[in-house]
Amino acid sequence: MTNIDKDDVHFMREALKEAHYALSRDEVPIGAIVVMNDRIVARAHNLTEALNDATAHAEMQALTAAANTIGGKYLDKCTLYVTVEPCPMCASAAYWTHLGRLVYGTTDPKRGYQNIGEGLLHPRTEVKGGVLNEDCTALMISFFKNKRQKLR
Predict the structure, then answer these.
(1) Residues of the chain with pLDDT under 70
(2) Is residue 108 a contact partner of residue 89, using CB atoms and an 8 Å limit?
(3) pLDDT score of 118
(4) Which of 41, 61, 73, 140 is the most exposed place for a label (fewest CB within 10 A)?
């Protein structure tokens, strides 16, 4: 792990807790937290199945909860930790919040925002990927492998 500090690892572990909670609810296991001033201000996980809502991604839930917690729509002093690279919808939502920093665990080569371009994020948003990459990747691979086996 290059250029990954202990705080990023600590907070990504918290996002992984949310991902495991999503897994226990048979949701795609993606977790997210929002941190401001070294304090978690929002926790979320995928709720697309529970809410029957394709937009109920972990990041969308976390960004909304964080804005409600801090009492403002701009999250420029916040960091979003998410176990999987955000999709274009979530990256665009982060753009509109002026997110200060994005830290993700594993890339999403099929649906990640980087497939379209990094311009989906606010120009001042700092990005760091690969934090606990192995753990985040293993969780996703295991989930989809189990789903495929159930279909057989």
Answers:
(1) 1-4, 152
(2) no
(3) 75
(4) 73
What is the DSSP track for the chain? --S--HHHHHHHHHHHHHHHHHHHTTS---EEEEEETTEEEEEEE--HHHHT-TT--HHHHHHHHHHHHHTSS--TTEEEEEEEPPPHHHHHHHHHHT-SEEEEEE--TTT-GGGT-GGGS-TT-EEEE-TTHHHHHHHHHHHHHHHHHHH-
Which residues in 36-53 are b (16+ Cβ under 10 Å) and which e?
Answer: beeebbbbbbbbbeeeee
Q: Which of 49, 59, 118, 134 is catalytic?
A: 59
Is residue 59 flagged as an active site residue?
yes
> Is the pTM above the cut of 0.90?
yes
For residue 138, give every residue at least 6 positions away whose Cβ sits within 8 Å of its Cβ, in sequence order, or none: none
